[in-house]
Design brief:
Layout: H1 32-37, E1 46-51, E2 56-57, E3 69-70, H2 71-81, E4 83-89, E5 99-107, H3 108-112, E6 118-119, E7 123-128, E8 139-143, H4 144-148, E9 158-163, E10 166-167, E11 177-179, E12 192-198, E13 221-224, E14 231-232, E15 237-244, E16 252-259, H5 273-276, E17 280-281, E18 283-284, E19 322-329, E20 335-344, E21 366-373
Parallel strand pairs: 1-12, 14-21
Antiparallel strand pairs: 1-3, 2-6, 4-5, 5-9, 7-8, 7-12, 9-10, 9-11, 13-15, 15-19, 16-17, 16-20, 18-19, 20-21
The protein binds the ligand Nc1nc2c(c(=O)[nH]1)N[C@H]1C(S)=C(S)[C@@H](COP(=O)(O)O)O[C@H]1N2 and molybdenum atom.
Molybdenum atom binds at residues 20, 91-93, 185-186.
């Protein structure tokens, strides 16, 4: 999702997401037979569901047993249980979402039913292509309860096969990727190949090894688009940005404008200026009135998760998606200014609270320099 100062499209084109992929070569650079051998074409894709030995499953789905799930099998599950939902991909370590999509997938719960009766299962983990090379391994997990039971007003994990109304392209992790709506991107493993059930109660995400909090929920945070180096005095200045709406929702977005203090935006966490800051409201873009221009062709708003039968979102902005915002600064006198923006969540915590610790998700308050010329 490139920074911009004009209004942005509601959905990001699959090829325009900022890409976060390990691997050498990257799975999405593979071609022809190599791609087919990697089981990354719709025809060759297979999903194994196995035990690591500690969990008891009525049956396993394995390549060697010729019963791994294939694309027609997943699509058949999709006809019965498929869900369309909006979600922005947000990396834990990168400010600003990578892109927003309308995803479609089968709840992981319904996919796991394929193994029949289970016992001694405490966690579920999964990985994609290229996992045989320890240097490229990328694995993620959730608790068994988080898979099987979700509050009725919330989204659980999905085995996803469509993005913006079309098959997920290879570059975005297709044919099939995991999508965990409430989590940062590292749980949404691309090029999905195998799901493993375990009785081990310890979290075993690859991402935890780099000092990241593997159980962090998506944070709510505001991000500011880039601004031109100078503005002309006497014209209205429009500053735009987006907010990631995380686990705790979004109540409002605020900005703080003050004359430049000559520190190039550096402001220590304990600087007394934070206490005296005067935060003013920004405007959150309202829900589109005509969803036809925002959703893919053929997708009815009422068929998207979180929308009413009348085709209106039940809450706005919607959790796990982005809220575009703007503010118009009028009558700014020539000079240099510091502009900052922050979110306030539905619990009334102002960003970066209540978890300012960055390794549970980048959410530092951003800064832009605004220079107004005579
Ligand atoms: N197989 C695989 N899945 C992966 C990754 C990866 O390197 N390999 N990176 C993860 C991380 S850290 C993020 S933030 C998201 C990014 O998703 P995107 O490339 O679709 O924007 O993919 C996740 N899934
Ligand atoms: Mo990431």
């Amino acid at each position: 999702m490139a920074e911009q100062t004009t209004p942005r499209p509601f959905l990001t084109k699959p090829e325009s997401f900022n890409d976060v992929s390990r691997g050498d070569p990257k799975p999405h650079s593979l071609k022809d037979d190599v791609l087919a051998d990697a089981r990354l074409t719709p025809e060759t894709w297979r999903l194994e569901i196995v035990s690591d030995g500690s969990a008891k499953l009525q049956r396993e789905l394995k390549l060697e047993d010729n019963n791994a799930l294939d694309m027609p099998g997943l699509e058949a599950l999709g006809k019965k249980h498929g869900v369309k939902f909006l979600k922005a991909m947000q990396c834990l370590n990168i400010a600003a979402p990578l892109g927003q999509g309308l995803w479609e997938g089968v709840p992981l719960r319904d996919v796991l039913k394929l193994v029949g009766k289970v016992s001694d299962v405490r966690r579920v983990y999964w990985h994609g292509f290229h996992n045989n090379d320890p240097k490229q391994k990328f694995q993620s997990s959730v608790g068994y309860n988080q898979v099987m039971e979700t509050p009725p007003w919330d989204l659980g994990p999905f085995v996803a096969y469509k993005l913006n109304g079309l098959p997920i392209p290879l570059v975005r992790g297709g044919p099939v990727r995991m999508v965990i709506p409430w989590a940062h991107g590292f749980k949404s493993i691309k090029w999905l190949h195998r799901i493993t059930l375990t009785n081990d109660y310890k979290i075993n995400d690859t991402y935890a090894e780099a000092n990241n909090d593997p159980d962090s929920y998506l944070k709510t945070a505001a991000y500011i688009d880039s601004v031109p180096p100078t503005f002309k005095a006497g014209v209205n200045i429009v500053i735009r940005g987006i907010a990631m709406v995380g686990w705790s929702g979004l109540k409002r977005i605020e900005y703080w404008l003050r004359p430049d203090t000559g520190t190039h935006g550096k402001l220590a966490d304990n600087d007394p200026a934070w206490q005296k800051a005067k935060w003013e409201p920004c405007e959150i873009e309202p829900a589109p009135t005509n969803w036809g221009g925002s959703l893919p062709d053929g997708v009815m708003p009422k068929d998207v998760w979180g929308f009413s039968a009348e085709g209106k979102p039940k809450e706005w902005p919607m959790r796990f998606s982005v809220a575009p915002w703007s503010v118009t600064l009028k009558n700014l006198k020539p000079g240099a200014y510091e502009f900052r923006a922050r979110t306030v969540d539905l619990n009334d915590f102002a960003q970066p609270e209540p978890r300012p610790y960055l390794k549970s998700g980048q959410n530092a308050i951003q800064y832009r320099a605004i220079v107004v010329m005579e």
